[in-house]
Structures are given as C-alpha cells and as structure tokens.
Design a protein that fits this description.
disordered N terminus, 2 domains, Rossmann fold, alpha/beta, 46% helix, 16 helices, 388 residues
Length: 388
Amino acid sequence: MRWLRRIGLVLLVVAILMVAWEPTRVALQTAVMLPNLLDAGPKPLNLFSDAPRRTPLPYRTTAAGAEPELAELWLPSWASEERQAGAMLLVLGVNNVGRNHPAVERVADGLARTGVAVLVPDSLALLDGRLEIGEIDGVVRAFQLLAARPEVDPDRVGIVGFSVGGSLALLAAGDDRIASRVRWVNAFGAFADAATYLAAVSAHAYRGPAGSVVPWIPTPLAREVYLGFLLDRVPHDADRQVLEATLGPAILAGERPSADGGVRASLETGAARAIHDLFTAGTLDEATAAVDSLPASARAFIDAISPARHLGGVRAEVHVMHETEDHHVPFVESRALAAALDSAGLLQVHTEFRLFDHVQPDDLDLVAAAPELVKLLLHVRTLMEETL
C-alpha cells in the first residue's frame, strides 16, 4: 500500500541518517528498534530477532500475609550467565497501565529483541491511583532483583521512569542500597517538585518564562490523582467525606470550584480547611500559597516525593525527556528538574519533543514528525550505548 511504502521509506531514510552520523552498531540497532517502541510502520526488528523469554517474578510483599507483588522479566533469547545482557528497569506511573498492558509489552519486547533485559514491576498502589512513600522502596527492591539475575551484567543496569515513575526512579537512585550500582536514569514526563505540580493542577496554570502564568488544562487522570492524593492527607473521615462530596465532582469534571464559606466553616480540622483552600484557589499564586500552608505532615510527604529536593545521593547520569504539549505534567517540571540536575553535575541529556500523549506515542504522521523522530533516536541511542 502507498502509505506503508511511504512510512517504510521515511524510516529507512532516518535509519540511514543515523548510521551516517555515527556508523555504529548501536545507532543502527536503535533506529531499527524505534518502530517497535512507537508501534508505527513496518517493524523490521521482528523479522530477524527471536522472541524474548518472559516470566513473572515476585519482587516485594507490602503487608504480612499478602500475596507478593509481581514484576515481569523479559530476557533476550540468548541471555545467560555466560553471556550477560545489559538491563533496564521500567517504572510506570500512577494509572491503570500495568506490566501486561499492550503498550508496556510492546516496549519491553522491542528492548529485549534488541538485546536488553527488562523488568517491569507492578505496584498495586500505583495501579489503584495512589502514590505512597513505600513506592520508592519498591523501585529499589525491583532494581536489586534485576541486577542480581545471573543473565544480567550488574554494571550495565539503568532505570527508565515514566511520569510519576520518573520521579520515583530518581528518588530510588539516590537510595544508599543501590546508588553506586545504578548506571543511569531516564526520567520521562516526571515532575521535579510535587508542590509546584499540585499548584499547577489546582490553578490550571503553570509558571512560565520570566514568571509568567501560562494557562494549562490538566488531564482527567491528573485531576483524579490530585484529588485522591489530597483527600488522603485529610485524617478526619467526616471532613474527607465533605470535601469529596462538595468539591470532588467539580474537580473531576475539569472545573475549578469556588471557595465555599459554609463548607469551610463545617470542616473540623485545620488540615481539611487547608486542602479546601487549595481545591478552591483562584490563581496560581493562591494555589502556591495554599500548598505552603498545608499541614506539616502533608508538606513532609510532598518533600519526600520531590526528586529535585533529593539529588544529593544520586550518582548515576540522568537523562530527561518531556512532551511539550503534555497535559498530565507540565513540561516546565522537567526543565526545572534538568536545571537542578545540571547544577548537581548529573544531567547527561535533556530533550523536549512534540510526539507523545504524555508518555505514550500520539497518532503519528511519521513524515511530518521526522525531525522529532531524529531527536528521539539521538536521545534513545544515548541510553542504548550505556546498556548494550
């Protein structure tokens, strides 16, 4: 078909350009792998690579008597103790996309066919839309499991984090148990500081260049996670129910509820009143002030999940990427993260794209997107060079 030939030609040209710029095996492997990762056009990788071996493995137990949470291990067909592979840990975000989601399987399969061992852990909390401090430990445990596999070269293991998973990946990379063993981290669509992110979702705006306020519409998932995260910070059941019933529907519908003096007066705890003020903030400045006025326990939680505040223990090189039209996490979060990493001497690459719907490939016109695809190839190649 004409469209198929056209896509194939574009991919061939891009592959040739990559090899011409840097005639290495890794550049060519990356170019051939990209159609699998994007699920776009012909997939030559499938024609001359063997299907990887995959198996579920327990990686942690979160409560006494509970079933262990599972991770999916993907191994190149040839990987063994005698012929070890480099490896990547894929850390997913807060959503209902687990290790067996087709998009996740496609990425893991493409990487494994190219020669990378891949581990994808499932977190019941993240799948349920909850972000908990224990998720950092979960990433650490998953990394330890992957690095200890006999088929894996422990000196060539990196972490790829998607969305909130990118923030968790950086926090885990600074953990003393694995900091010296993480070769690199790639944070894709992550937030730098949970405080500025919460303010952006509340105000439907983020801070742009020179302090400007840029209107922004958060996705339904972002609003849902925001609402649930803050309601979980209310310790009083009755207050939590009042906030959820009176303000929750408007937030989930994409509206910005106005302050309600009657509702606020009915709340019995200062924590609930502070969260009411954040839910009903009229401007970005008001939202920022409301976040700063949250109870100490909530602010401690926000600090603990903000990677830009905890880079001291990170030793790995860090790669940052973000979609500039992202409506789940504003792309300026990655700019702030890149700036903090650069100041700490940790930033390797920072790339911005116009290719994705947050962290998943958007409907691509591969001809029009060719310049962005070249940027993606160059970025992914840097990761593959550290791993293959």
